[in-house]
Structure formats: C-alpha cells, structure tokens
Automatic annotation (TrEMBL):
One Pfam assignment: RDD
Membrane topology: Multi-pass membrane protein
Region Disordered, residue ranges: 299-336
Species assigned in the record: Plantactinospora soyae
Transmembrane annotation, as ranges: 44-69, 81-100
Every RDD domain range: 38-177
InterPro entries: RDD (IPR010432)
Protein name, entry field: RDD family membrane protein YckC
Location within or outside the cell: Membrane
Keywords: Membrane, Transmembrane, Transmembrane helix
Cellular-component GO terms for this entry: membrane
Top-level taxon of the source organism: Bacteria
Listed PANTHER family: SLR0254 PROTEIN (PTHR38480)
Keyword Transmembrane helix included in the entry's annotation: yes
Length: 336
C-alpha cells in the first residue's frame, strides 16, 4: 500500500467550494470570472468605516440645522411637525441615501468598501444600478444595520446567512441579486517548477482534469523545499506524491523518469494552462470593468512592458578575482 505524506508538512487547502473559494461568477459570454467573494471580516471593516463617515455627516447636519433654527428663533417656537419631518428626512438621507448614492455613482463602492478594496456587483458580474443599490439599502436598514425591525434577531440571522452563503452574501444581496467581491487581489511569485525540456511533448498530452488544487499545492511545496529536506524524507514524500498524481493523470509517465522530473513536468504544465485561462479571463474582466485594467508603463531604458517578473535574487557579493591574461608567445621566443 502506498504511504501517504504527512499532512503536517504539506497540508492541502480547503476545497474550492469552501469559504476560501472564488466567487464563481459567469459572464454573459459563458466565461467563469476568477474573483474573490468578500467575507464577513472585510465587510465588517468596510461597514465600520462607512458608519464613521455617516456619524460625521450626521454631526454636520445637526450643526447646520442648529444654525438655521437659531436664525428663525425670533419668529416663534419651531413647529413640531416640521421638526419631526426634518429628523425623518435626515435619518433617511444618512442611512439609505448614503450607501445608495455612493454605490450607484461610484460603481458599487462606498468609501468604506473603497478603502478595504471591495465592490458590489450583480450576480452575473455586471455593475449595480440604482434599483439594486436601493434594494440593498432598504433591506439593510430594516433587518441588518441598524436593523429597525427586531434588531438582535435580524442581526443574528444576517450574520448566519453571510457566513453560510457560498458567496458571502447578506440578506440585502439575496434580495437585490448582488454580491460583494474583492477588486484588489494580492499578487505574489512563489516557486514555479520548471518544465524539463525532454518532457514537453508528453506533458502537453496530459489529462489534468482530476488533479485538484490540494494535490498540486503539495507537489509545489515539495519541489520548493526539496533542497531543505533530507534525502530519505524527500524520496518518501516524492514517491507518495508520484503515486497520487499518477492515479489522477494520464497518460502514464515515460519509464525511468526521476520523481522530481515527473512532478515538476506535471506541475509546470498545469501552471502553463492556468496562465492561459487567466489571460482569457482577464480579457473578459477588463471588458466588463475597464477601470480594473492594470496600468502598463514601459520599463525605463528597456523595451519590456509591465508586469515584468522580478529577477531572481542576486548571489552574495564576493570580491572579484582578476586573473591577468598573458599573451601567448612561441616557446623559446622573446618579445622585442
């Protein structure tokens, strides 16, 4: 029976359908958009920023109202009905008008969402309009925040719905057909296994449909730490991963192939195909949201365009050893 690698060293990530999954948006061109759904933590942080902004607006409105009342104080006591109407209008403007106007005019971003890097979009990935923003705002004020109808109960229901929904949607999102996504995603370069040239043709014919993200990550971690593991541990883990990868890929590898070469070829081919899919996805995403397209400045002094992959770190500096080159002369000859 094939030994399994210790999960403490190479733990696989959660399934792609879990809380860390992508939003799974599908555009009108039937292309799946690789965007991340915003979760409860980032949404609460954005809400706190928006609440602080709403409090500042409320204070400013109170100051303006006080100045106006003082200016009309000589005409008699203020009308209570008028005062109640002004208070109602102020509350509606702050709680409903603030998010609705920002999301409608700023393409789904309030100041809080803009600061955190979030955006409200439709379920199909399109921009939200006034109708979706108004629905989200009304449902949010009524049953979420501040929750004018049974606050404690509706808060608990809203948090439960947000945490259990695959896309992290709240009640207002479900009612409006929207969701909140990250429009800024971190980009980093990790260890990417290099394709072994003699295996290029074989790798292009691989069927990788059953190779999941967890197994690919385990292979990548092993190849990245190959130089830090003992020979016995490396062989044990490589043979285990070889068996797992070979069970879900086809055709089988050529005979007498080293374990590291096989794993590197499989992972490099998977990475190359993922880059091709990402390029197609980004072209569609840029069409839907042109403002998300990254700037492409030209690198100074070169013909390269952005993004330019950072070069490998330079080796430690050492003192250059200069060896003089002596001119070759015929044996026994002298220079005159």
């Amino acid at each position: 029976m094939t030994a399994q690698p210790p999960r403490s060293s190479f733990a696989r990530p959660a399934s792609a359908t879990g809380l860390g999954a992508d939003a799974g948006l599908v555009s009108g061109e039937a292309v799946e958009l690789e965007v991340r759904a915003a979760r409860l933590g980032s949404r609460v942080l954005a809400l706190l920023i928006d609440v602080a902004a709403q409090l500042v607006i409320a204070v400013l409105l109170l100051i303006v109202a006080g100045i106006l009342l003082d200016s009309f104080a000589g005409t008699g006591p203020p009308d209570q009905a008028l005062m109640t109407a002004l208070q109602t209008v102020g509350v509606v403007l702050i709680l409903v008008g603030y998010p609705v106007s920002w999301e409608t005019l700023n393409h789904g971003r309030t100041p809080g969402k803009l600061a955190v890097g979030l955006r409200v979009v439709r379920d199909d990935g399109g921009r939200v309009g006034f109708r979706q923003s108004l629905t989200r705002g009304l449902v949010g004020v009524a049953v979420e925040w501040p929750g004018l109808v049974l606050p404690l109960l509706t808060w608990a229901v809203s948090v439960t719905v947000t945490m259990t929904d695959p896309r992290g949607r709240r009640l207002g999102d479900l009612a409006a057909g929207t969701m909140v996504i990250h429009d800024r995603s971190p980009t980093g370069y990790g260890h990417v296994p290099v394709m072994v040239p003699p295996l290029t043709g074989w790798a292009r014919s691989l069927d990788l449909t059953r190779l999941d993200d967890g197994l690919a990550l385990a292979v990548r971690q092993l190849l990245g730490r190959r130089g830090t593991l003992t020979e016995a541990a490396r062989l044990r883990l490589a043979r285990s991963l070889w068996a797992e990868v070979a069970a879900v890929t086809s055709p089988p590898p050529p005979s007498n192939m080293p374990d590291w070469a096989y794993l590197a070829a499989v992972h490099a081919e998977r990475h190359a195909r993922a880059r091709q899919r990402l390029a197609r996805t980004r072209s569609v995403s840029t069409t839907l949201w042109p403002e998300l397209a990254p700037a492409a400045p030209e690198a100074a002094g070169s013909g390269l365009t952005w993004p330019v992959r950072p070069a490998a770190p330079p080796p430690p500096s050492t003192q250059a050893l200069v060896t003089p080159v002596l001119a070759a002369t015929p044996q026994g000859g002298t220079d005159r």
